Fold this sequence. Notes:
Helices cover 88% and strands 0% of the residues. By secondary structure, it is mainly alpha-helical. α1 (2-11) packs antiparallel against α2 (16-85) and α2 packs antiparallel against α4 (99-121).
Amino acid sequence: xxxxxxxxxxxxxxxxxxxxxxxxxxxxxxxxxxxxxxxxxxxxxxxxxxxxxxxxxxxxxxxxxxxxxxxxxxxxxxxxxxxxxxxxxxxxxxxxxxxxxxxxxxxxxxxxxxxxxxxxxx
Length: 122
């Protein structure tokens, strides 16, 4: 619109009304540019805010999964030994009286795994 009014002013340089329209058109053009710039900045801010929130959620999820893996590592030796010795097979005589030793050994191995993994994390 500004260019059209400029071309009209070339033919009619003394027309005051066309100059007023041209000036208003320039003001509108500048206001539209400012509005577009403001909208772009707002959208970039919202995207940054959303990415920050996603990063926080990912960190929380990572911490939860780490704790779950610690629990799994702690109970894995106990469950594996329980599954191995809990089958319906004839166990040798030396194993039958050592239930509590095997149970405590599984807990000890799980505790050592838990200690090692948590030490590596820090």
